[in-house]
């Protein structure tokens, strides 16, 4: 029985690229973590140790920095596509290049209510993401948000569920619903568009739907958020969510002679429910 090389890819992970635009006194900042990977026919490198077709991961990292200057970072998607296309071109044995980007947002520091020109404060929490893939058969862009922590203090129930001899969970008519949401949405094509505007609008829709939808379960909330995004954005083919159910349990205050009508909770760490769903268009399964 022969032994052969299976799927493989290689690249530089988590290159931290910070780009300042300083053409005017009012600076702009983009703060990224960039991971690149090439795939293709790299058999000689693995089997014989032949590096002649290997574009070093160090070069991939250098290209990420050079493109931050020469191409600029109008959006993670636009930058990622340019970088992936360049890497594919630079490595003749490659058939595909993937660029994954995480973006960390910075806000201007407010001084007397006015945003400062060149002093920023890191916005905590959520991370903007994109993964672009460029290959001989075309380009694909999947963008997203992660670590978007949201909570609603009412407007959520979980009841009427299947019960067996191991079920102890009581029906909940009014519970806290909280999650650290990760969403990724796949664009139908990679044509140039205002990627930043779509990102902002998807974020707004997801948050507004979370807030305003009465939730019978996290599953139903995810479906509602996905439907709102697909209804508003024809350029998005599908959207996937991963949502840990951050359980909040009512604390028993009876031993202290106190009532607790949905006011004091313990925020549990682990375990957590993990609810995941993709919402897509009928014609795309
Ligand atoms: O929204 C929820 N979905 C579930 O599937 C589930 N299961 C559970 O124990 N609590 C919850 N909550």
From TrEMBL:
It comes from Nocardioides seonyuensis. Catalyzes the oxidation of uric acid to 5-hydroxyisourate, which is further processed to form (S)-allantoin. Urate binds at residues 57-58, 158, 175, 219, 245. 5-hydroxyisourate binds at residues 57, 158, 175, 219, 245. The active site is at residues 12, 57, 247. PROSITE patterns: URICASE. Belongs to the uricase family. O2 binds at residues 57, 245. InterPro entries: Uricase (IPR002042), Uricase_CS (IPR019842). GO terms for molecular function: urate oxidase activity. It holds the Pfam family Uricase. It catalyses: urate + O2 + H2O = 5-hydroxyisourate + H2O2. This is Uricase.
């Amino acid at each position: 029985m022969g032994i052969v090389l299976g799927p493989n890819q290689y690249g530089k992970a988590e290159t931290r690229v910070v780009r300042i635009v300083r053409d005017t006194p009012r600076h702009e900042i983009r703060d990224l973590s960039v991971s690149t990977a090439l795939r293709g026919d790299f058999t000689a490198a693995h089997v014989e140790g032949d590096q002649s077709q290997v574009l070093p991961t160090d070069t991939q990292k250098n290209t990420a920095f050079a493109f931050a200057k020469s191409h600029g970072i109008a959006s993670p998607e636009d930058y990622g596509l340019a970088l992936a296309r360049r890497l594919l071109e630079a490595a003749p044995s490659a058939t595909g290049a993937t660029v994954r980007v995480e973006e960390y947002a910075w806000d201007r520091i407010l001084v007397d209510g006015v945003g400062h020109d060149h002093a920023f404060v890191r916005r905590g929490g959520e991370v903007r993401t994109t993964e672009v893939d460029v290959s001989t058969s075309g380009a694909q862009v999947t963008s997203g948000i992660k670590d978007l922590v949201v909570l609603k203090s009412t407007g959520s129930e979980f009841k009427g569920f299947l019960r067996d001899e191991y079920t102890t969970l009581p029906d909940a008519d009014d519970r806290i619903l909280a999650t650290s949401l990760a969403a990724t949405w796949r664009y139908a094509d990679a044509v140039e568009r205002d990627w930043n505007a779509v990102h902002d609008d998807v974020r707004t829709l997801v948050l507004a739907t979370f807030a305003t939808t009465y939730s019978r379960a996290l599953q139903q909330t995810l479906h509602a958020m996905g439907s709102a995004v697909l209804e508003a954005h024809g350029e998005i083919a599908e959207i996937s969510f991963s949502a840990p159910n951050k359980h909040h349990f009512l604390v028993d205050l009876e031993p202290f002679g106190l009532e607790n009508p949905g006011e004091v909770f313990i925020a549990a760490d682990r375990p957590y429910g993990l609810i995941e769903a993709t919402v897509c268009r009928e014609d795309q399964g």
